[in-house]
Amino acid sequence: MDHQNTEMDTESLQKRERRRGSCLDVFLVVSIIFLFAAVVAVAAGGVVVMMELRSKVDSSFPSSESMSSTLTGDTPSPAYKMQDCAYLDFTSSELKNYTMSLRTVKYGSGESVGSKFIFDSNKQSLQVKRTGTYFIYIDLKLTCTGICNTGLLSVHLGKELTCEVELSAEDPTPKSRKCWTVSQMEEKTQLLAQMTIPKEGLKNWKLERNSSKFGVFLVD
Questions:
Q1: InterPro entries attached here (predicted)?
Q2: The dihedral of CA 15, 20, 21, 25: what is its sign?
Q3: Residues 78, 109: Cα–Cα separation, whole Å
Q4: Considering Cα of 8, then 11, then 15, then 21, what sign does the dihedral take?
Q5: Helix (H) or strand (E) segment spanning residue 220
Q6: Residue 100's closest CA among 167, 176, 192?
Q7: pTM for the complete prediction?
Q8: Which of 76, 98, 173, 187 is least surrounded by Cβ atoms within 10 Å, i.e. has the fewest?
């Protein structure tokens, strides 16, 4: 009889362990599904935020066409909230290792640097006047004017953003590159555009000044 009781107790324990194991398996599967769904939701939310920021910036920065028209005396759109953004053109088409020269673009009675920024034409730097979150972007366009070589062009805005363009001798068609980031910057942070090229240079490639620029927009 004792032997039978022992067998029954053993079977009962095994059944309990199996039930407990099944419950743990279900719990683990549900937990993994929940975590996966949470990660997907966060990633999707991040994409939506980035798209909204890009849309907001695109609607706030003047386009090249609107800037050109304002230079002829036309009145710019009042939608541009220039106090929160800065927009600078590159002044040279030359490709070399150097601090790139910049210029503001006049429109109406103002310029393309808002009151939240300071542009120093001597240092060729753009300084933010307050700590905050900023959307930073670079637009580059390069064309081949003859027999061109292969190499990598890089433009750095401090440690905040690096924009790279692969140039190929086998494909000398015009190259365009848009780079952007969202970064937290402290008050008085200065941005300088540093260009770097290979030691052998980038023969017969040039930067299209009218289509190349960088901008900064205060998000928060």
A1: Tumour_necrosis_fac-like_dom
A2: positive
A3: 13
A4: positive
A5: none
A6: 192
A7: 0.65
A8: 173
In this predicted structure, the answer to whether residue 61 has a pLDDT above a threshold of 60 is: no
Q: Give me the DSSP letters along 89-154.
A: EE-----SSEEPPEE--EETTEESB-TTEEEETTTTEEEESS-EEEEEEEEEEEEE-SS---EEEE
Nearest-angstrom CA–CA distance, 136 and 214 = 8
For residue 7, give the DSSP letter: H
- CATH code for the part of the protein at 63-218: 2.60.120.40
Per-residue pLDDT tens over the stretch 175-193? 999 999 999 999 999 999 9
Cα–Cα distance for residue pair 80/217, rounded to 1 Å = 11
User: Encoding tokens for residue 139?
Assistant: 């637009």
- State phi, psi for 86 to the nearest 5 degrees: -135, 140
